[in-house]
Write a structure and sequence with these properties.
homodimer, 771 residues, alpha+beta, 6-stranded antiparallel sheet, 20 helices
């Protein structure tokens, strides 16, 4: 755990340069706008340790699979998030001195991600070896308004220097992925040009033929007065263009470069038009100018915060943590484009690759349901409907048939691109989360039409998969599911993982019920679905037979569900009794030792209790939580949030708060020693859930009714969050002794506070004592 | 399965060139002498498909591990068998026509591995595009007498040509491994020289600094008359030297190159002396001359066959198969050097890497026990004793302590170099085989001294491992062993694999018994062992406690041992009921589907019954065989032999014969479609066991008494095998109705035929009717 980020309610601040944490800071302070994003790299040359990254949504590379031992069924490639054109570069010389913080004495340094207004700012004062002192201020952002553009204002103020300053703003498309499997260059140049105050490079990916064009437009100001730049000197080489801006300065003069950047991709335009589109975008933003763009950016973020802010009083670190999570989520996915999804690292790094895990459905959907337009969540669901045929093909590859679908563990385009057999082929509960998201979406939004239009196709294909994936055990006289990996990836290839068996059974039940409902209420759609899916009655009858005879491992004596067959053969020793030198297990223990231990990476049985809460009484919840949580090491970023929600429900306030800090500040404090690779973007939605569903006790029940049962950690004075529930905007404010629910917009709504039914009138508010 | 090899009792013959099988033929016809070996590549240039390979015993490379996802505990490298200097090359030109079978019309072609005399011969007649016809005969061998040398006689006889013939004999050390993880060049040149009729190249491996020096000495003959060659023209480049021999020919003239080669390594000599040692070896063999060397080679092989031949009458393919297996084993390991072991592909390919698997102990040892000097087997055992410290370190890396040892799955120098977690960390039964080999060796040889001298150190360390690897299950009130992979690698990470639990328990029992025996009979050694191993009484008491409370999964109803917990949850469908389109499973099914199926790759429970035969009555054998064999797909080369032995014992003659053919002709008929990578060398010893222990019913019981109970497959007229039992040479001849056991050498011996005790007198023989 690190502790170098300054606590602040609205900003992430690094005071003083922490060179050895630079990769971490670069991850944390990444900026993006849903269409593109980049790590918080420096604009000027930096010879120290850095991890350069600029990413464009939906642009990826099928990197040839690298494994030690090939297993049948492995995909041929792993879809890598692609490092794309670096458009921030501004190489700066004072005379022949090159600005490079790694070679200078740093007198002051501050880097700030301003989350309120949506920009990254860096100021520093540094001294060259000959005593020349220079002040620099850079501010940049990826525009939320013109989402194919970005802008940088870079100001240099030498203190004791008379002479020329020379700046080289550039577009550099000669970039590599650090995690390339075979040190391959993924891009090749298509065209480039540099003239007047502009330059661009277009490149294509060597496979899949994605084209990206990145361009720049340069302005310069001396002491805030715009200079009349034309026909700047330039140079170019393969996949690289730069302009040169030169000026003479006296001590105290300031010199500013405004660099406007546009990045456009063949996913949205005809390849051949990209340079033109790029120039058009540059026209638009250069005309607006930096300050107008910045003002628009502030407004756009204000609107985001207006909808989705969470306020915490009395605990700055907790406040900073939650805003950081909300900010990064909004930077990563805006829901405008249904071909996109929420990558595991957003635009903050390249590790893990792929863009879509079960994280989207299990952890991210609730955030977007409550804080964004319904279309956003719907698009997340339709994304999987669009991939249904690929999921069916994936299942066929593994020996399933008849329209059974296995959604991939990781994907970019619907095809599986993961290659660890114990995950790729066995962590099949992901199919359940995709079905659950349909249920969750309809329950929250009331959008019943989704089921007939899209939902059932997916549910039928998933139920078909489960019905083939189980087999009848003569020995148990029950249906069993062999060889799976549950959410707890510290177990591999187990039999009868309770969570997987449960969600499989639930999927089939939900599918049968949904078929009945559509049949009753929408016969035309029913006929279409039956026909297009070639659904026959004997099929659902077989599902029902499986549902009625599904096996679930239990420990009757303890009254807990068993994570899997044989779990009780392990030595059951709580994490608390383990010498801390063994933690984290994933760094200290060999894999086999982890596997045969009782230790749990993330909620497994408890994930099921979280999803299907109302199917189990509170004692069952408590017994299972008390049994499993003490053996849980929370070494997945997705673990703490579920435990906050369950602990809060059970009244375990301390545990809830402990888990909350772990999820909210996971990246800020680098809990898992891996933030340098990028942020844990998908788990950030879990942090949001920790506050709303956890402390706020927010639920939507199966009848679509909204509930709140807030508690408040003793470290906090008060907290509040805003949600959209269907078309009503609501704010929930919880203090030590009161809960106030305020109407913000839309129609009145019935809701429950501490299980007491009330009506929230338009413009009204409800107040209760905290119970 | 392929069927292009001509059946022959003593030779492997390819009649006509089978270009598409060339890699297979190159594997099968590999030659070697225990010190070095090579694939049956062509001497002259060949532009067609070929897999070039020359190997030197004990020379390897630690190739950096390549995995998709790193697991804690993986070794940093995989020890690769190293492709070394190619010394066979003779590039031939007639005028400006380059001899290259891939560019010529082949009129006749024959390649023969003569196993009786130990050489590889190739003859062909081929036509250049201009109509010139040439006859070639090449014969070569790796000398069993001067085992750092080889010799080639290469004769060209043009039919319709007048003009110059130019030959370029070369040493080429600019070689690659096809299976290099990162396309790395493993060698770098140290020195080279070429002068008069000789040339050499010395290279070193970039890691570990192994040096190898390969040299040649060239003679030429015209129409069998030796030419007086001196100061041949030469050329050289990096890691390559060649000489030029030129002669004018008339039609019908024959021109012969004798190429003498020597390969010496820093494993045996000081690096700096290698060129000199190489020249000394060349002096020796050039002085002997090709024909003398060949005569010595014939004699050496005659002696080998004298000891270890198996004759089968009435079934040429079976005869060819068994001799092929014996021949390859003798080429691979001679037992002269206790640093060496029996690589999985011998000198026939580079795949799998490493030199030592549990195959050595479980499958190869019995062959060397019965057909070679006692020293050979003893050296195989001492090899593991020498690696004990590394095995202890390996176990420490995985969290074990107190001198517990886990021997590696694959090794070159005692360090683990395998990297699939389910094998590397979990296929731990290998430890059991290493202990069993000590038992097997002492039982067969009567060499009790081995136990105190070496055996107990290894047994104690192995028992320590088992005692830590089990854990007490509160649920079962027994010791269990979680997360293992048994011999059947079509199951991974299972709990309570019966075989592993059984051999673990047996190891601890055998260790305790052996400690007692040494204590009673050799108190001095006992004290030394107790002290050097820091053995305390409480430790053996704890082992005994585990022995007494070990858990074994069983199916009481069927009366069979269960391969592992939960085995009965599978769908138990015999292989015979599976549509053959699904076979082989390892090519047709995804890994998860294989894992959750009931299908068995190789003997698992049955491996235990084979090892510990006398612990179980025949009904138990039969019930388990009848239960498991029908679910066994034999997709490991190590599978059929154990089933021959068990089937023969149970009187399942057809099954025994079916399995025998599968093991004996595995490579000759390319059953598993992978002989192109090299031969399955270790399983060849299993073929030998199939005849002796299987059909011959040979056993040595726990009292060290020899037994035979021969059966004969109906396809055979008779068969015979020779063994050494302690110091007595014995031949067992079985016909349809008789068994004759003949004394060959050494003292008289008591033995059992069909469980009737008899005495085989010196010079005598025993005859019984077949029962």
């Amino acid at each position: 755990m690190k502790d170098y980020i300054t606590a602040d309610e609205w900003s992430i601040v690094e005071d003083g340069f922490h060179a050895k944490y630079n990769r971490i800071t670069e991850s944390i302070m990444s900026i993006g706008n849903g269409m593109m994003g980049q790590r918080a790299n420096f604009e000027e040359h930096f010879s120290g340790d850095t991890f350069q990254g600029s990413y464009v949504a939906g642009i990826y590379y099928p990197d040839k699979t690298r494994v030690g031992w090939w297993k049948n069924g492995y995909p041929e490639y792993f879809a890598k998030v692609l490092n794309s054109a670096n458009f921030i570069g501004i190489d700066v010389y004072l005379g022949n001195r090159r600005l490079d913080l790694n070679q200078m004495e740093i007198i002051d340094f501050r880097r700030e991600l301003n989350m309120k207004e949506g920009y990254l700012e860096r100021t520093f004062k540094a001294k060259f070896s000959d005593g020349l002192v220079v002040n620099v201020r850079s501010k940049r952002f990826c525009s939320m308004v013109d989402d194919e553009t970005a802008a940088i204002a870079y100001t240099i103020t030498p203190e004791n220097y008379t002479g020329t300053i020379t700046c080289f703003p550039s577009i550099d498309f000669d970039v590599l992925n650090e995690d390339s499997n075979y040190d391959e260059q993924f891009w090749e140049e298509v065209s480039r040009d540099v003239a007047d105050v502009r330059g661009y490079v277009c490149s294509r990916t060597k496979k899949l033929d994605f084209h990206v064009c990145a361009g720049m437009h340069v302005e310069a100001l001396k002491n805030s007065t715009k200079l009349n730049l034309t026909d700047l000197p330039s140079s170019q080489q393969k996949a690289f263009v730069e302009l040169m801006v030169e000026e003479n300065l006296e001590p105290g003069d300031s010199f500013t470069i405004h660099k406007y950047a546009a990045v456009v991709a063949s996913t949205n335009y005809d390849k051949d038009t990209l340079p033109k589109v790029c120039h058009d975008r540059l026209d638009t933003i250069a005309q607006k100018g930096f300050l107008t763009m910045l003002a628009e950016q502030n407004d756009a973020w204000a609107a985001k915060w207006q909808l989705g802010d969470i306020k915490i009083d009395g605990d700055v670190k907790a406040q900073q943590g939650i805003r950081f999570n909300i900010f990064q989520l909004n930077q990563t996915y805006t829901g405008k484009d249904k071909r996109l999804n929420i990558g595991p690292k957003g635009f903050t790094g390249e590790k893990y690759g792929g863009s879509t895990y079960w994280d989207t459905e299990a952890y991210c959907l609730p955030f977007y349901l409550a804080t964004a337009a319904r279309e956003v969540s719907r698009n997340l669901l339709i994304y999987r409907h669009n991939h249904l045929q690929k999921a069916i093909e994936n299942a066929e590859k593994l020996g399933f048939s008849g329209g059974a679908a296995l959604y991939p563990m990781v994907t970019m385009n619907g095809e599986e691109c993961h290659n660890e057999w114990e995950i790729t082929f066995e962590e099949i509960h992901r199919n359940g989360a995709i079905a659950y998201a349909i249920f969750d979406y309809i329950r929250y939004t009331g959008d019943q039409s989704y089921m007939a239009e899209y939902g059932l196709d997916v549910l039928i294909a998933i139920s078909r998969f489960w019905s083939q994936r189980v087999n009848f055990s003569e020995d148990k006289q029950k249906f069993v599911m062999l060889g799976v990996t549950g959410p707890n990836e510290y177990e591999n290839n187990v039999n009868n993982n309770w969570y997987t068996n449960y969600i499989a059974q639930w999927c089939m039940m939900y599918t049968i019920a949904s078929i009945s409902e559509v049949k009753a209420n929408d016969p035309a759609s029913y006929s279409r679905i039956v026909s297009s899916n070639k659904l026959v009655e004997s099929e659902t009858a077989h599902w029902q037979h499986i549902i009625d005879n599904m096996y679930f491992p239990e420990d009757a004596q303890r009254g807990v569900f068993l994570q899997q067959d044989g779990f009780l053969d392990k030595e059951l020793i709580p994490v608390a009794e383990l010498d801390p030198i063994h933690l984290p297990l994933n760094q200290k223990w060999s894999w086999d030792r982890i596997l045969r231990s009782c230790y749990i990476k993330q909620a497994d049985v408890l994930q099921g209790l979280y999803f299907f809460e109302d199917q189990f009484d509170e004692d069952t919840h408590r017994r299972n939580f008390d049994f499993y949580e003490p053996m849980t090491v929370h070494e997945s970023s997705l673990s703490p949030c579920v435990h906050v929600i369950l602990a809060a429900k059970l009244g375990y306030e301390e545990k809830a708060y402990e888990m909350y800090l772990r999820t909210a500040r996971l990246d800020l404090d680098d809990y898992n020693n891996d933030t340098e690779d990028g942020c844990h973007t998908t788990s950030m939605a879990g942090t949001w859930m920790s506050v709303t569903k956890g402390f706020g006790g927010m639920r939507v029940d199966n009848e679509g009714q909204l509930h709140f049962s807030p508690m408040i950690p003793q470290q906090w004075d008060s907290y509040s969050f805003k949600i959209f529930f269907r078309t009503t905007g609501i704010e929930v404010i919880t203090t030590k002794d009161k809960v106030v629910v305020k109407h913000l917009s839309g129609p009145s709504v019935d809701l429950f506070i501490y299980e007491e039914k009330m009506t929230l009138e338009e413009g009204g508010s409800l107040a209760c004592n905290r119970s």
